[in-house]
Amino acid sequence: MAKIPAWSYSSIKLFETCPRKYQAEKVTKEVAYKDTDATIYGKEVHKVAEDFLSGEISEIPPKYSFIQPYLLRLQAFPGEKFCEIELGVKKVDGQLVACGFKDPEVWFRGIADLVIINGDMGWVVDYKTGKNAKYADTRQLALMAAALFLKYPQLKKLKTSLLFVVSKDFIKENFHAEYGLSIFSELEGLLKHREIAYNTGTWNPRPNGLCRKWCAVTSCPHNGD
Predict the structure, then answer these.
(1) pTM
(2) Which CATH class is domain 35-186?
């Protein structure tokens, strides 16, 4: 059987969108990842937020002054702040436990933009630089919350949000420890399909709206459709 690599929110979303595209990017590597203007800008915004909240800089550069009100509010939250925190989850005797991001047995990986821990309460914030929140997916928040409940067993509740700093949209969701791991069960079917694909070498394309202009897998018969 094939060795199944660790997964993340972005990788499982890619597989869900199109297994053939996932294969090209993650397995055969026939398509190399390339930054776009949008992804470069997103990284810049994330870096400014990280540097400000971690104390590396005391002032926001004028180019990014529009995010200052949000960062000042987050800065004022009580509790210990962690920026770009790496999270890992592995399976031990059938149970999910927290582990290091690079643990040899890591099963799931995630990076949370900002985590604030204050006793048994926590906040998770993920910055988004998209123009609107129309396609926001709260599964990302659920996965971060699940990994944090495992890492910090004292937590009873997590308030999470996708913060769209450009469109000024907030997508919020609260999670409680007693059912905080349910997202893994919800994704079980999708993860099983991914496992089958690795073991059989079958990566069926899933035609969608990205095929016409936005897919670099030129060997796929649906490319350009």
Answers:
(1) 0.92
(2) alpha beta
